[in-house]
Amino acid sequence: MSLNRFAALYFATRRLRVNDFPLTGIAIIGAFGIAVLYTALGFRPNCGFVFYPSTFTWDKEYTDCATGMSTLIFYTVVAIATWTNTLNIATAFKLTVDKSVIQDCLHVIDLVNSIFIFKLNDALWFQFIFLSISFLLIHALDGFVMLYFHPEVHPKCLHGKGRKTSSKIVTIATPTFHGDRKVTTVMY
Predict the structure, then answer these.
(1) Strand bridging mode 168-176 / 57-60
(2) Is 57 helix (H, G, I), strand (E, B) or coil?
(3) Where are the transmembrane segments (predicted)?
(4) Tens-digit pLDDT profile for residues 51-110
């Protein structure tokens, strides 16, 4: 999943200059910085997570440091999901459900399952469902959300036999402070 996100950011923005979109550059650098910071904090002794192959689950080490990291990660994801959904709603000026809102909510559901819900029952099957199956299901649903919102990558079998799709490429040139900027998009 990380490779997917990297590719989506890198290939889409590799020809853009940071000066063209300074706020986007700051956001990408900030997200990268937070990820590196959390990774570095996890390298401290007795502050990591352990994989249990017998139950196919990840769990924190039972130390104050690991418990604090687990709590910090949970509240950071909830805060970021809340912040991005607030920005999505503010940008749209109306409550619409779009791709990023659904994706943020999916990952918050996975965190709630893996931190709180699995503790409600000690049965191994219950914990397996709310830890491992939840993790896999959330990422599969994330892929379906991406597929649903990007019809240009749909397989031909989903287009229908009688339906013809036409598209045209439109280039829009707008004068900016940095010079002319051309935006090319595919219109369906």
Answers:
(1) unpaired
(2) strand
(3) 21-41, 72-93, 124-149
(4) 888 877 778 788 888 888 888 888 888 888 888 777 777 666 554 566 777 787 888 888
Q: Is 160 left (phi over 0), alpha (psi -120 to 50) or beta?
A: left
The domain tally of the chain equals 1
| The pTM of the whole model exceeds 0.90 | no
- Residue 166: inside a domain: no
User: In terms of Cα–Cα distance, which of 109, 114, 111 is closest to 132?
Assistant: 114
Provide Rg for the chain, Cα atoms. Answer: 21
Quickly count: other Cβ atoms within 10 Å of residue 47's Cβ. 18
Q: What's the domain range around 148?
A: 2-160
Q: For residues 7 and 146, what is the distance between their CA atoms, to the nearest angstrom?
A: 14
Has residue 168 been placed in a domain? no
Query: Is residue 132 in a domain?
Result: yes
